[in-house]
Design goal:
Length: 153
C-alpha cells in the first residue's frame, strides 16, 4: 500500500515528470534528499516503470485511431502466445487487453490514415494464425484521454 507521501510524489510526477527533485520536494512538502530516496524506491519497486512524453497523435500525423476487437478460433496456448508476441512487436498497437466478453482481445491502434489501417489489417492482423473474427470501431472524436492514475491524497 502506498503512503500519502508516495501518492503525492506520484501525483506530482504524473502531472509533470520534468520537475527537478527540488521542485518536486517543494510541491510535496519534503526535503530534497528524502524526496529523492522516495522516488528511487518507487522506481526500484517498479511502481514508477518509466518516464514518457505525451504526444498529440493528430499533430504528429497519426490521423486514424481504432479500437480493434479480436476473437481467436481456438484458445490453444500456442495461438495465444503467438498472438501476444506478434501484437507486442507492432508499434501501431498502443494497448492490448485480454478480456472477457464477446472478443478475446481489444487493441487500441493508431496509424496515419485509412490506407495505413487497411495495410495493418491485411498485412498483419488477418495473417495471424488462430484469428477468427476482427471487428473495428474507428474513433470519430476523442472525448477524454489521460494517463494519470486518480490518486486520492
Amino acid at each position: 500500500m502506498l503512503s500519502v507521501k508516495d501518492r503525492r510524489v506520484l501525483s506530482a510526477l504524473q502531472n509533470d515528470s520534468r520537475l527537478t527533485m527540488q521542485e518536486l520536494a517543494e510541491r510535496v512538502g519534503m526535503s530534497t534528499s528524502a524526496c529523492w530516496r522516495r522516488v528511487k524506491a518507487l522506481e526500484n519497486d517498479g511502481v514508477i516503470s518509466r518516464y514518457a512524453v505525451i504526444v498529440d497523435a493528430k499533430k504528429a500525423g497519426f490521423g486514424l485511431s481504432s479500437m480493434v476487437h479480436i476473437s481467436l478460433a481456438r484458445h490453444e496456448q500456442q495461438n495465444v502466445d503467438n498472438f501476444v508476441s506478434e501484437v507486442s512487436r507492432h508499434p501501431e498497437v498502443l494497448e492490448c487487453f485480454a478480456t472477457s466478453g464477446e472478443a478475446d482481445f481489444h487493441l487500441r491502434v493508431v496509424v496515419e490514415d485509412m490506407d495505413a489501417y487497411n495495410a495493418f489489417l491485411d498485412d498483419f492482423i488477418f495473417k495471424l494464425p488462430g484469428v477468427s473474427q476482427v471487428r473495428s470501431n474507428i474513433v470519430l472524436k476523442e472525448i477524454k484521454s489521460d494517463t494519470a492514475l486518480p490518486f486520492k491524497i
